[in-house]
């Protein structure tokens, strides 16, 4: 799942290449992607991009009076292309069967945006079910999930008071809070693993059980891990961002490998329909989750 550091790098590249460009054509190949049925992406044709920014894990392509908000979901991404679209008016007749795809196939382009310099931007989804989503709205907060986003630790204004409102005294597991977008925006499964490893904290401990020193450590590592990752991903081309993220992970996705900081082995545990990783020696006093 793309998280804030990679989505920020994506938004920065889109902003650099698309700002000032006019949208000339839209091709939607999967009707499920469009969440605002009364405002299709084709309604933006001939409009000029004024900026591209990020809200949590969402990309916001800003036009003069409207926004194309994109959620990459679990398996979505973007790539540049010179592929011509089928035409502006075909999006509503997209492939109704595209929601079921065989795993392991190349990521299909579900939406293609073409700009006046001939540049094409393809929005893809590599999952066996469609998680990519788009909205055409007057303001980003017209998307309910964007309006509900909590403060973002990548934001320079994010402060300890923001963190305390999300964590202090809560009887909820640390990993769950880190991934709870209404509490703290932009963090998913991978970076929550990395933050908790860096903070040397048990992923399933409740926030209410933390000492003052542990809370301070978690705050520092939440900000530090995310901002370091944002800086590290900056300028990396779109087709290399996912591999750069994977290469930077210390524990996430590393089950069965040696811990980078001790003699123990990174372990898996089930969490929210997926798996997460941790080091027993560094985080759980040797307890296997």
From TrEMBL:
Residues 2-94 form the Formamidopyrimidine-DNA glycosylase catalytic domain. GO terms for biological process: base-excision repair. Residues 250-284 form the FPG-type domain. InterPro entries: FPG_cat, FPG_N, H2TH_FPG, Ribosomal_uS13-like_H2TH, Znf_DNA_glyclase/AP_lyase, Znf_FPG/IleRS. It catalyses: Hydrolysis of DNA containing ring-opened 7-methylguanine residues, releasing 2,6-diamino-4-hydroxy-5-(N-methyl)formamidopyrimidine. Keywords: DNA damage, DNA repair, DNA-binding, Glycosidase, Hydrolase, Lyase, Metal-binding, Multifunctional enzyme, Zinc, Zinc-finger. PANTHER family: FORMAMIDOPYRIMIDINE-DNA GLYCOSYLASE (PTHR22993). Belongs to the FPG family. This is Fpg/Nei family DNA glycosylase.
